[in-house]
Amino acid sequence: MKVAVVGQGALGSALAAALSEAGVDARACPGRAPLPADLAGADAVILAVRDEAIAQVAARLPPAPGSAVLHCSGAYSAAELLGAVATRFGAIGRLHPLLSIVAGADFRGVVFAVEGAAARAIAERLGGRPVDVPPERAALYHAAAALAAGHLVALLDVAIELAAAAGLDSDAARHGLCALARSALDNLEAHGPAGALTGPFARGDAAVVARHLTALPEDVRGIYLALGHRALALGGAREPDRARLAALLRDAFPAMVRPHFREEK
Questions:
Q1: Residues with Cβ < 8 Å from 77, sequence gap 6 or more?
Q2: Is the pLDDT of residue 10 over 90?
Q3: CA distance 157 to 151
Q4: Is the dihedral of CA 66, 72, 74, 79 positive or negative?
């Protein structure tokens, strides 16, 4: 199998290296420079460039009826970004790994959202787990990925800031809270959300939640309340503790989002 990876950012570099290690004849080339004409000899061309550049880079590819062209966007289907050039190639597809990409990334065991036979074959060659995501649900799938990765980092940034305000030095806060989050993720994978939930919402401890709400800065309180409402929905807290927590959350939420609590009234 010959694969060309266009784009030498974090994802493109990681894919090219991992494919080579897997025994694939992989070639990497930058997405902004003139594209070599011999890309047409590749079995698959992977466009590992920014979403807004995919269609433009695809239009610059030499026609290759025997090649599949794949993009790596999670938010768009293959047809949305490659449909305009589909007739120039043997197939179009999508290859999106559910992985926070760094240099030397290991794709073994990673779930890939795929479209097309070529994308599935490459995911399997990398040791990944290809899954089919319907094109019309690509944005929903990618929103889930953003919540689990980028939003998780943003949430932990808030937690680290709070811990530092409580007196921990920044290194201790980051190390301690990342270790705590890692243990929660391990439990989540092993036992599911309800089985992994710990803390005052799992125990139904309304007094502790009230203390948290008093201590939290106003700009953080909304995050805490929204996630607390979801934590309460996971169950674990017993009545009447659950009812006390539900009332506390309902009364503390800004008026603009209180309709979400109609079922608790």
A1: 94, 115, 135, 136, 138
A2: yes
A3: 10
A4: negative
Residue 108: exposed, middle, or buried by beta-carbon count in 10 A (0-12, 13-18, 19+)?
Answer: exposed
- Under DSSP, the state recorded for 264 is G
Structure tokens at 149: 């990765």
Residue among 46, 88, 49, 85 at smallest CA distance from 69 = 46
Count the neighbouring beta carbons within 10 Å of the beta carbon of residue 33: 9
Tokens 């009332």 sit on residue: 247
* pLDDT exceeds 60 at position 265: no
Amino acid symbol at 149: A
3-state DSSP assignment of residue 144: helix
Would you say the pTM of this structure is higher than 0.90?
no
Convert the pLDDT of each residue in 126-161 to its tens digit.
999 999 999 999 999 999 999 999 999 999 999 999
Alpha-carbon span 47 to 214, nearest angstrom: 49
Residue-level pLDDT at 7:
95
